[in-house]
Amino acid sequence: MLTVSMKRKLSDPALMTVISCCLCTQARATDLGRVWVDKPIGKEVRAEIQEEGVRSVFTSKAADEHVFDDPKLFPKLWHASLCLEERNLGNLQGLAANYPKLGSLTIRQSSPLSLKASAFLGKLAHLRALELCCRVENPALLQDSLSPEIEQLEIVNSNLAEQDKLTITLPRLRELTIENGKLSPSFLKNLDAPKLDRLCLFGVNLESAGLMELKRFSHLRQLNLAGSTLNNVDYADLRSLGRITIIDPANRLYSE
Amino acid sequence: MAFKQIVISLALFLILTAGAVTVTAAPIERCHIPAARHDPIYEFENAVNVFLSVLSEFHGDRNHCYVDKRLPIEERNRLRKDVTHHLSIENGADQYLLEDPTLFQDVVLVGLRSENYSETYLRALVLFHPKLESLTICQTDALSDEALRDLKKFGKLNYLELDCPLAHPQLLKETLPLSLKELHISDSWELPELAKLEELRIQSCRLDVGFFDALHAPHLRELYLHNMDVPPGSLKSISKFKLLRELSMYLCNVDESELHNLRPLPYLETSIAMDHSFWQSFYDRAEKSYRSNDFRKALKEYDSVAFSQPSVYLYLQRARCYIRLGNPQSALENCDYACAMDPNSPEIQIVRSEAKRLAK
């Protein structure tokens, strides 16, 4: 079930009962089981969750930091979304210890990701998709914590792409999204992602030097510049990237 | 345990869908009083729809999607594989949600109810979903000129709801798509000629006196005025809409004399719905006058009610007034109207025979 719509419906306890029933029965049938955890998980619910094989867990404000302490609770867990601020660390620790085969992770918090959290992230060696919506305390440490299996990486409101000396090697990376913030020209230069196919730069400050690094990515087919600011960018250079489809809603490339 | 849950779910589903059918299949009376937003039936129906949309999501037909926060990466990956026809963007959704052309590829109905980024969303919709059929924009800030100009680019748009102020309303004349069949607006802005327009809703504003005079919508069938100030003279031109079949005014501040501008009824089937309390005041006054034997005044008040909310009782009361005023022909005429509504009513025959006696 769609997370957002489920959140809307939680306000009605009667309806929630109905939805819970649906969730349990349908999750079994479609294997799309998703759970929004917004309070400590009780015993009864625990048994139901275990039985139904939940694949995605979304944690919300009132959940505790022990959601992932039991390695048997989510035997089919694929995706975890942590939006708990100060409780993320405990849950990240739980994920690293008990669900090392996690495939997809979203971390959203306003405080920077701590060194400890980066270390826990490093233990999730099978991550295929990572969405990091926070600043990072020590970006240099994080570069070693990223799983080489990552195929989709989203960096939102983060300082990661600002770093000049960061060398990230992601041999399987296909999609990279950088949203809001600065993009250091060296970031793309030092990015080792031979399979990069799609690059989204949403609301990013860009410079020509950084964009020219795109020539290195031989598999790159799509560049999305929606909401980005182009500083000192030679549009002719951009147009010369002929094999790449450039999405530019502001239509700056061809309006000169 | 799972079997029990399936049985419970199925039972609830059947109960709720049965309820939904009952609600939607209820006969619509000729002169209805529109349900208020807090109407329990409306809320129940809404709850059922929400429930059904949840079910449809589970059945793999996830055709309606609400977004009120940034979608986690896994949700976006899932949505890429799904078919989403109806998208509602609420407060909290991220700015670049629609900039990803791989998301919501099948969307045809979009509701923008976010206080932020409507310009960004619209621009992305124009770029990636130019064949949009339905669009709702609901916000408190004024919609920019750029956003208004983007509207023109939706060549297949047939439903548009603008529940927001406009930075420059005069631009609407150039930017409204001419394909519109249904339009909801929140001010009596000047509109271009809308040859296909069939339904117009105006709400929460003061109606401009010359609005209907300037409006060119030859196919207009339904007109709704909600929560409006209706100044004298502003309804005069309504009679030019020859295909109009329903005129609903509710929670409107309208002078009684203004309603007379609508007469004579230019179209036989046009119904006029008003607040119950509004009509009740006419009805109460009519009954009071009738009891005090002021039949002329009672007739006038009954006229006002019968004009919009005709019933057997009202036509019979009018007939009785005409009998008391010595006008048996008009009384018989009203008996005929009442008889057309309920041919089996014995009361009509009593009044009719009384009128016939007087006619002799």
Question: How does this structure look, described?
Answer:
The complex is a heterodimer of chains A (256) and B (360). Chain A is of the alpha/beta class and 256 residues long. Chain A has 2 domains: 1-150, no CATH class; 158-256. Chain A has 9 helices and 13 strands. In chain A, strands 1, 2, 3, 4, 5, 6, 8, 10, 11, 12 and 13 form an 11-stranded parallel β-sheet that branches. A two-stranded parallel ribbon of chain A has the order 7-9. In chain A, helix 4 (88-98) packs parallel to helix 5 (115-122). The longest helix of chain A has 18 residues, at 13-30. The N and C termini of chain A lie far apart (46 Å). In chain A, 45% of the residues are buried. Mean pLDDT of chain A is 80; it is low at 1-31. Chain B is an alpha/beta fold. Chain B folds into 2 domains: 38-281, Leucine-rich repeat, LRR (right-handed beta-alpha superhelix), CATH 3.80.10; 283-359, Serine Threonine Protein Phosphatase 5, Tetratricopeptide repeat, CATH 1.25.40. In chain B, 42% of the residues lie in helices and 14% in strands. Chain B contains 13 helices and 12 strands. In chain B, the strands form 2 sheets. Chain B has a 10-stranded parallel β-sheet. Residues 14-62 of chain B have low confidence and may be disordered. At the A-B interface, helix 1, helix 2, strand 4, strand 5 and strand 6 of A face helix 1, helix 2, strand 1, helix 3 and helix 4 of B.
How many domains of chain B, as an integer?
Answer: 2
Radius of gyration from the alpha-carbon trace of chain B, in angstroms:
26 Å
> In which range does the helix fraction of chain A lie?
25-40%
CATH topology of the largest domain in chain B: Leucine-rich repeat, LRR (right-handed beta-alpha superhelix)
Provide tags for this entry.
heterodimer; A: 256 residues; alpha/beta; 2 domains; eleven-stranded parallel sheet; two-stranded parallel sheet; 9 helices; 30% helix; elongated; B: 360 residues; Leucine-rich repeat, LRR (right-handed beta-alpha superhelix); Serine Threonine Protein Phosphatase 5, Tetratricopeptide repeat; ten-stranded parallel sheet; 12 strands; 42% helix
